[in-house]
Design a protein that fits this description.
alpha+beta, four-stranded antiparallel β-sheet, 6 helices, NAD(P)H_nitroreductase, Nitroreductase, EC 1.-.-.-
């Protein structure tokens, strides 16, 4: 699949099957990620690959964080949170290792570099015929979850990429026209 075809056809599948993607394909997707634009060559991206019981460890951390944020959350909601990471055989957690006091590169540009790397992973996975869903939510920003994953104080999770064989066909993309998104300069004067 060529690059333009991959970009135009990429969609997140509605669900993922339990088949784990080949290690060589995952590594190639990560190689694509580290080619992302990176102002200042800070290389702020880090990747945490969660498989097997490691996904349950993430789920436990997410459930405990939810219970701490909302002590009145029903057990069914906490259990649902605990099981979220089990929806895919592999979760690639993309992490921004930020340098908040960098003299030239603002933190937002560092985040954007990691977001670009995250999309590169998604696109590479799609080009290989596998499915990928980008998830975030409160658990991506909850310090308790970041600590449970062993992340550093200035690290931020940019995304949880759920990866597996696509189950079902993604619904067709809504009709969109490029002209609907173009901005124009106001008239002079």
């Amino acid at each position: 699949m060529d690059t333009l075809e991959a970009l135009l056809s990429r969609r997140s599948p509605p669900a993922l099957m339990p088949d784990e993607p080949p290690e060589a394909m995952v590594r190639r997707a990560l190689e694509a990620a580290i080619c992302a634009p990176d102002h200042g060559k800070l290389r702020p991206w880090r990747f945490l690959l969660l498989r097997g019981d490691e996904r349950q460890r993430l789920g436990d951390a997410m459930a405990q964080a939810l219970a701490a944020r909302d002590p009145e959350a029903p057990e069914s909601m906490i259990e649902k949170e605990r099981n979220k990471p089990l929806r895919a055989p592999l979760i690639i957690t993309t992490v921004a290792r930020l340098q908040p006091n960098h003299p030239k590169i603002p933190v937002e540009e560092q985040r954007q570099a990691v977001a670009s790397a995250t999309f590169s992973i998604m696109l590479a996975i799609h080009a290989e015929g596998w499915g990928c869903q980008w998830k975030t939510g409160v658990a991506a920003r909850d310090r308790r979850v970041l600590d449970a994953l062993g992340l550093e104080a200035d690290d931020e999770i940019i995304g949880y990429l759920y990866v597996g064989a696509p189950a079902g066909v993604a619904p067709p993309r809504r009709a969109m026209e490029v002209d609907d998104f173009l901005l124009h300069l106001p008239p002079e004067g």
